[in-house]
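Subject: sequence -> C-alpha cells, single chain

Hey, anyone have a minute? Need the predicted structure for the following. Not urgent.
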Amino acid sequence: MTDTPMRIAYLLCSLLLLPVVSLAQTPEPIGPVAVDARVALPRFKENADVASALAVSTTNMPGRGLGLAGGVHWYPVRMGRVTLGLGGEILFSGASNTLEAEDDTGVDGPTVQTHFSTVSPQVSLNFGTGKGWSYLSGGLGWGSFTTEREDDPVAEADGSIRVLNYGGGARWFAKDHLAFTFDLRFYAINGQEASTARPAYPKVTLMIISAGVSFK
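Reply:
Had a minute. Here:
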C-alpha cells in the first residue's frame, strides 16, 4: 500500500515524457481543439458509517464500478514547450453490490448502489505535439454522490456538492483526427451532512482510471 503513491507518480511522469520523447521532432502544434469520450473505471470505498446508516455490512457496499466520461478542450496559448488548455469535463459513474446468501437455502441480501456524477471546468498544461501529447490538469466543479439500498432509496440531495479533480493523461494520434486517450484522475468529493431520510456521507477522494478515444 505504501508504494501506491510512488507508482501513481511514476505513471504520470511516464505519460508526460512519452509523447515528448517519441514525437519531439514533429513541429505540428497541439490542438486547436480536442474532444474526448472515455470509459471510466471507478473504485468506490466501503465506508463503515454509511453502511451502518443503511443497515448493511461493509461487505455489501459497492466497490468497482463503471462510468462514462467526456470532455472538450481548447488550446489557445503556446508557451515554449508547454501549451495551455481550457475546457471542461463531465462524468457519470455507478456501482452496485448484492450480498449473496451464505448457502443454497438462504436469501440474497439487499442490493446497495452508489452513484457519482460531476461536471467541471478544467485548466491543463500540455506537453508534446499535435501528433501526441500528455497533460496535467485540474478543476473545481459540482457533483452528486449517493449510496443507497435499492429497496429503500434515500431522499434526493438538497443541491450539488463541490468536487475538486486533478490528474493527468495522454493522447496518441494514430490518424490525423483520431487518437487513443488515457486519463488517471483523483476526485476530492465534499462531505454531506445527514438530513431527513438521507444519511451523512463523509468527504472522500476517489481515483478513477478511464480510457477511450479523442478527436481533433
